[in-house]
């Protein structure tokens, strides 16, 4: 017997509805779906005990090219609030999920709406959450959605938002002061995902891979970056440890061979999930410490 995709969706919806009816504790909470870790983390920090947050993309998974499952689409359809990044990061959400759901009974949050977005090579830079200054604006949109959907608990959400806002502002201040007096003004990374950090805190980035993680750079890209690093007398390469360090190792090998010095490979996290028991803010603090080393603060 043939089973259509629509039939599967209906079956899963019925199952989810039954689960809610038999789990009243969860049914009393706002159902929030976020596309990936930072947004889910912010929603949990603000929503606390009154939200149940589902994250569509597993921790530390490439976001750009991820494809939703049927169960993911159903979860979005069941949600009270749906949060996505926008800025062309998770455009599969807009093209594949939004047309498939009933949008009338939920709040859909484009978390970068109103954010001053950066562009490079004619593309929007989607890596907004990596900057605490911009991430605070994204989290504020989540806060506003929660109090709109659940005004009964506004005071609770307001207090938790103020606590989270203070953490963002302290971190932003730490970046401003920590990078205010540096000897270098450029960093070299395997993936150019740090444009919002660079714009906010006064340095430049150059990446083996540009904004799109799907690029396949050739040997000439490595050679050009090595020349730039030599011109800047910079011997630090940054990589997110969740991803392959192949390009970082190639840069290090070439630099070591040409200079006789031992180039360093340091971590800069993308905050796509907990890493080594570090949450979003702890990874941010690690990033700041490693930027201080590379920029010679």
Largest sheet: 4 strands, parallel
Percentage of residues in helical conformation: 40-55%
User: Structural class, judged by helices and strands?
Assistant: alpha/beta
- What's the helix-strand series? HHEHEHEHEEEHHEHEHEHEH
Q: CATH class of the largest domain, please?
A: Alpha Beta
User: N- to C-terminal separation?
Assistant: 67 Å
Task: Compute the average pLDDT.
Answer: 90
Number of strands: 10
Strand order of the largest sheet: 2-1-3-4
Radius of gyration: 21 Å
Count of helical regions: 11
Number of domains: 2
**Spans with pLDDT under 50 lasting ≥5 residues?**
1-24
- The backbone outline, from C-alpha atoms, is globular
Into which percentage range does the β-strand content fall?
5-15%
According to CATH, the homologous superfamily of the largest domain is Nitrogenase molybdenum iron protein domain
Structure description:
This protein has 297 residues and is of the alpha/beta class. The protein folds into two domains: 5-175, Rossmann fold (3-Layer(aba) Sandwich), CATH 3.40.50; 181-295, 3-Layer(aba) Sandwich (Rossmann fold), CATH 3.40.50. The chain is 48% helix and 14% strand. The chain has eleven helices and ten strands. The strands form four sheets. It has a four-stranded parallel sheet with strand order 2-1-3-4, sandwiched between helices. Strands 5-6 form a two-stranded antiparallel sheet. A hairpin with a 2-residue loop joins strand 5 and strand 6. The longest helix is centred in the middle third of the chain and has 25 residues, at 154-178. The chain is globular and about 65 Å long. The termini are far apart. Mean pLDDT is 90; it is low at 1-24.
């Amino acid at each position: 017997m043939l089973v259509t995709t629509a039939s599967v969706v209906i079956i899963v919806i019925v199952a989810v509805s039954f689960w809610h009816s038999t789990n009243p504790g969860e049914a009393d909470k706002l159902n929030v779906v976020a596309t990936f870790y930072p947004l889910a983390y912010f929603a949990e920090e603000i929503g606390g005990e009154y939200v149940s947050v589902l994250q569509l993309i597993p921790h530390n998974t490439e976001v750009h090219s991820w494809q939703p499952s049927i169960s993911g689409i159903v979860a979005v359809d069941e949600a009270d609030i749906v949060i996505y990044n926008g800025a062309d990061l998770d455009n599969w959400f807009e093209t594949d999920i939004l047309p498939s759901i009933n949008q009338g009974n939920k709040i859909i949050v484009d978390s970068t709406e109103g954010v001053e977005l950066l562009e490079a090579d004619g593309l929007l830079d989607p890596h907004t959450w990596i900057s605490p200054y911009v991430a605070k604006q994204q989290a504020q949109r989540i806060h506003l959605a929660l109090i709109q959907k659940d005004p009964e608990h506004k005071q609770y959400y307001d207090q938790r938002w103020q606590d989270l806002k203070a953490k963002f502002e302290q971190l932003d201040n730490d970046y401003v002061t920590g990078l205010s007096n540096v000897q270098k003004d450029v960093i070299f990374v395997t993936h150019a995902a740090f444009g919002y950090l660079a714009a906010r805190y006064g340095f430049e980035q150059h990446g083996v891979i540009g904004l799109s993680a799907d690029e396949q750079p050739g040997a000439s890209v490595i050679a050009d970056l090595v020349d730039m690093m030599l011109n800047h007398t910079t011997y630090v390469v940054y990589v997110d440890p969740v991803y392959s360090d192949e390009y970082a190792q190639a840069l290090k090998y070439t630099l070591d061979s040409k200079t006789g010095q031992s180039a360093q490979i340091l971590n800069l996290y993308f905050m796509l999930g907990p890493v080594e028991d570090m949450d979003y803010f702890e990874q941010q603090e690690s990033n700041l410490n490693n930027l201080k080393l590379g920029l010679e603060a």
